[in-house]
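Tokens for chain A. Residues wanted.
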């Protein structure tokens, strides 16, 4: 392979919004520009004095996605100024009709359809006009507020996968020209897919975004402005979908290759649900056992047992903080490492003593939180003549004899 030091030098560690890869290279030299679509300045003076925002477009080496590494979502005032999309072009209308037909072909007789970012609402009401027996629900904080048709509802708030997917259980979720504005489109679709899998639903997703293949091919720069912080290539779009726990049913281009779309089956990620279930079980069990270990500790204290905790930092500090082994009831903390002696347990405040302290001040009970070292510590105790009635470790929600 040929050496290319200039390329090495261009390496940037950034996170790709489409595929999550962490290496990118510059795509355009950094520059400053004002907001291009959502600001709507009311005078020439206002327009000229608009704040200039950093454009720092980089390209992901894994998927070719182009994104503004300096983008800050809070700088885009979507809440005050709507993002108006011109939907009336003749060719454009034709494409929208074609897409609508594709969608209708996939919908059941009485569909539940959710659109995330419904804008002026025309796409959703267009669907509702064709298949009136369904329910059509739009979510857009800055979109149309009310619909004329009884089957259509518009909500002026953001769609939340974990709340609204179980509530509406849609057959189809639509998201058109939204993803390119998001900081984390990958996380957005992954959330839709995971939530769908959790509720055991077979929902589909239709997404549509601008595609910059032609812009790259024809060296066009006008696509790269602040609001479009995240620009899909055919490759980055597909790479994103492959990482979402979803099944890609169909993808294609419309509008002379300037727009890319896909239908995907959400929720094809049973292993994610299994992982979530085992994490939840762990969390529940620990919640139950937290009280048990705290009671066990308290009972040792109330019985007047002299307790020493072995280790003053890391796992031992975590143990004392989680189970509130405070300095008043459990003042004795020793460590194998003499360099830790004289320092204090983070959060709890016991002074850490070197383990030999136990030779002259024997403990009844020694608790060893770092149990992966417990055998070594037992050996260390034996060699140095340190004894105790019991040595305890944390195991399956209790303190047990080692
Ligand atoms: Zn990428």
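Reply:
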């Amino acid at each position: 392979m040929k050496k290319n030091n200039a390329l090495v030098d261009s390496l940037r560690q950034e996170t790709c919004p489409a595929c999550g890869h962490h290496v990118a290279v510059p795509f355009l030299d950094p520059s400053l520009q004002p907001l291009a679509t959502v600001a709507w300045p009311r005078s020439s003076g206002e327009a000229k004095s608009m704040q200039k925002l950093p454009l720092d477009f980089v390209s992901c080496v894994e998927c070719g996605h182009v994104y503004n590494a300096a983008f800050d979502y809070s700088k885009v005032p979507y809440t005050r100024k709507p993002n108006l999309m011109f939907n009336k072009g003749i060719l454009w209308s034709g494409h929208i009709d074609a897409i609508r037909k594709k969608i209708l072909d996939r919908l059941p007789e009485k569909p539940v359809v959710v659109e995330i970012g419904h804008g002026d609402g025309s796409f959703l009401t267009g669907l509702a006009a064709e298949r009136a027996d369904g329910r059509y629900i739009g979510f857009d904080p800055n979109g149309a507020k009310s619909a004329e048709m009884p089957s259509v509802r518009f909500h002026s708030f953001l769609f939340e996968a974990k709340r609204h997917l179980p509530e509406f259980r849609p057959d189809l979720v639509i998201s058109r020209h939204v993803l390119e504005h998001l900081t984390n489109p990958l996380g957005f679709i992954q959330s839709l897919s995971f939530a769908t899998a959790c509720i055991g639903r077979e929902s589909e997703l239709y997404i549509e975004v601008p595609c910059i293949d032609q812009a790259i091919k024809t060296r066009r720069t006008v696509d790269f402005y602040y609001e479009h912080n995240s620009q899909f290539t055919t490759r980055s779009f597909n790479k994103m979908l492959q990482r979402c726990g979803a099944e890609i049913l169909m993808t294609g281009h419309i509008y002379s290759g300037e727009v890319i779309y896909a239908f995907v089956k959400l929720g094809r990620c049973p292993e994610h649900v299994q992982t979530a279930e085992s994490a939840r079980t762990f969390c529940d069990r620990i919640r139950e056992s937290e009280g048990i270990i705290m009671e066990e500790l308290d009972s040792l204290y109330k019985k007047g047992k002299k307790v020493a905790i072995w280790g003053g930092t890391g796992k031992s500090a975590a143990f004392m903080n989680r189970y509130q082994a405070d300095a008043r009831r459990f003042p004795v903390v020793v460590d194998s490492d003499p360099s830790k002696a004289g320092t204090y347990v983070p959060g709890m405040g016991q002074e850490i003593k070197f383990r030999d302290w136990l030779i002259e001040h024997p403990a009844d009970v020694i608790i060893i939180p770092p149990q992966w070292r417990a055998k070594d510590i037992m050996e260390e105790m034996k060699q140095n003549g340190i004894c105790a009635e019991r040595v305890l470790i944390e195991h399956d929600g209790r303190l047990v004899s080692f």
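Residues 5-72 form one domain. The chain is about 30% helix and 20% strand.
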